[in-house]
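User: Can you fold this complex?
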Amino acid sequence: MPIQTELLHGTLEVLILKTLSWGPMHGFGIGKWIAQLSGDELRIEEGSLYPALYRLEKKGWIDASWGLSDNQRRAKFYRLTAEGRRQLLKNSDIWSTFAQAVARVLSAKQQPAS
Amino acid sequence: MSTFDSRRSLRAGTPLWRRYLRFWGPDPAADVDDEFAFHLEMRIEELRAQGLSPTQARDEALRGFGDIQHVKKICRTLAEERENAMRRTQWWSDWRYDLRFAIRQLTVSPLLTAVLVLTIALGIGSTVAIFSVLNAVLLRPLAADDSERIVYVYETWRQFQAGNASVGHFHDWTEQGRVFEHTAAVTGGTYNLSDGEPERVRGVRVTPGYFRVVHKSPVLGRYFTEADVTRDIRLVVLSHGLWRRRFGGDPSIVGGSVRLNGQAHTVVGIAAPEYNMTTFAPQLWTPLVFTPQQRANYGTHAFGVMGKLKAGVTRDAAQADMERVTRGIAEREPRNMEGRGVNVRPFRDVVLGDFRTPLYVLVASVTFVLLIGCVNVANLLLARATTRRREIAIRAAIGGGRWRIVRQLLTESVVLALVGGSAGLALAYVGIRLFVTFGPRNVPRLQDAGLQPEVLFFALGITLVTGIVFGLAPALRAARENLLTTLRQGGKTSLPAARDRLRGVLVVAEIAVAVVLLVGAGLFLRSAWRLQQVPLGFDTSGVLTARLALPPERYASNETVADTYRRILEQARAMPGVQRVGASTSIPLLGGGPDAAVEVEGKPLNLNTAPSPLIRLVTEDYIESIGMPVVRGRALKLSDMAPGASPAVMINERLASLAFPDEDPIGKRLSTWTREVGKPEWREVVGVLGDVRSFGPDTPPRPELFLPFTQPPPLAWNAFQRSMALVARTSTDPAAHAPGVRRVLRSIDASLPLYDVTTMDEALGADGAGPRFNTWLLSLLAAAGLVLAAVGIYGVIAYFVTQRTSEIGLRLALGATPVSVLLMVVRRGATLALAGITVGLVAALGATRMVTTLLFETTPNDLPTYVAGGIGLMTVALLACAIPAFRAVRISPMQSLAES
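Assistant: Here's the predicted assembly.
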């Protein structure tokens, strides 16, 4: 399910940070990981992924360097900075609270009492 | 962003991003392209594996990017922004690092730092102090509105370029001139101010146009106008200073009246305080009004004329226009015009002109001192740089980059300069206070010197420039350092000959500058000494003088005036401790007086060549009291002062040689200052007096003529303002008799103020105060330059000895005598000193030309001064070498060899 990333600007950034918390990865790998982890529910379009990566790099939450991919090709690897790790902790809390709240609303069986 | 701290980068290796930058160069566009290409490649491979055809796979892969060019652009922009932010951060953090490091360097060797800071502080402090004076006196615009358009118009006569004008000239210049907006005639005057404690004040009589020529809005009231003065001439504008001092700043005085010379004058206004900078520093202004008779007078040259040029008119245009009008006058009035012309001078030049050269000389000298200071600091830094070679080599080795090293070292020198400059600012503050307190009184606006914003700005500028100037040589040298050699030598502090040569050149330069200073100060000292040797022609010691003026309203006739002075002198003569007392309308060193052409009996009168002596009315004891020698004939006696006595005069030698060349003047008759031109009134010459330097030791004697005060020329008492200076020769401290003289005057007329009360010694002191101050200051600066140069040469020679410790040890071990070692060291210093002295003496020949006009009977290429300057510096240089030389002799061969 491709999602409207404009709506979920912050979401995408948190997802990238989370992905990178396991270790350095290039853009292609990040997109793939997010897709896999979401059980192929979330497919991040490249047109959203890369601007998000550059934004995060600019903010200093992630850092990049060129390295070699598994198939020995030159790729730009991203990794989490200390600041990125802090932001991930902060934002993932907010996001799970928010997601739970949304889920509760959507799964409500009763009309709220007025 | 601690990742980008370059300190860490030096310790723990360059961070990833920097390595990447260095390798690929900062090219965000290429990076984005590469990254996207990689992504597409991977994605296409993946899609192919799922069974899509190459084209399908490609299309599918691209779809994910949407408008790929747009996405690339976004990413590129983001990357560039990041790049720039990074560079900024890097720059700041480098800078912070440099700063921290610089401060640490300063604390490493506190003694060296103290010497450096002190040198810089002295240099910058004195430069800023002098600049502040220059700024206050010369650079700031004059306070009057459009002051650059104000000019003085002078009548010239023969070589005199700044003479007063006649009323006729003033009138015609005003009426027929085309270049002026306003004009004014001014003439100085003094007034007895007699409400309360009587006081004599200096004022100016001005035509009402004056306040439009020199305009600054009044503090209170207004200035008088033409309309005012046609109704009533008894008006006065008070100066701000007088109003505050004497009237306590009481605003109700405006419209009220004050008593001037016994007559009530209405106060119309209080002038702006800025009027104090005009030439006389007047305390009040009264109207000057001319009668039609005066307007037709082209022969009496008694008024200053000022004008305000129309906007856009240059001085030269004004000069041409005034010449046109003046030619017209000469055609109509040829009788008075021989040798006369006109000269237009900017107000600014008139007010400040005399102070320009001395101030620029001071600025040049103090800059020289600063320069010498900079050279010393540069030398010390160079010496330190050698001990830091290893550190710098390592920096370069780990990729510090040359520019980075230069920047680090420059930061250090600028930090040093800033510390020194701040201390210098404190010194400058003290210096300015001293300058204002002890500087010559006659310098306009000197009191305004202070640390104004522009002075602070100058201080900051000069500090930064200084920091860069003395830091640049060591920094560039360090950057050029050959890494391999240094590291191979294990960073030993031995130095290549080239570096030693640079330090040698610097020392030669500072010695040269010190020589210029020394010669300059020497010329001033010599000039001051010459001035001291000039005999004044009279004896200044033990003489008290005080002046009074009798108001014409109550002391109208010549007889009343003479009688009053006679009574005053009689009482003063009775004072204990007073040996003799006399009086004269003008006395040496304390103002001039009118002059008049002299006609000699039996010789044709040519007004253009006739001698024009200063005319003085004197009492019988004056000549003895002031101590002038009678060289021929006799002095004026009491009998010459008696009613009906035949007219007698005394002349000075100068007048004798002009009026009676090659003949005995005694018994000859002359005439001067007569009621009518062409009708001589003969007076017999009874005595010739020795010449006196009436205008100070630096001005040659002028012809002088002495008349008995009982035989004044027509209207002479008006010209003298009925004023005489009493001169008392005392057997005890002359200053102690001032109250006695005051008491005498009070018993005669309590409303008369006694003023200009001073001893002749004080008057002589005040006369030379300006040049003396210059001489003193220049000597101080030269001494500072000399000490700094000595420190400089000491530093280099001491270093020379340190460098050659092992060599000297070896020589001594091989049997060299201590004397030969001593000579080797001294020869090194003497060579440098000699080079510096040679360059300096040649430079001094050019530089001292600037002071020609400030010297008295001393030419700027005065040989003895140059010889003394050279010898003086050589002596100091050799003394400075002596300490390291003796240290060299004491080197123990065994120890020095063991050390190496």
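Residues 2-100 of chain B form one domain. Chain B touches chain A through 29 residues (CB under 8 Å).
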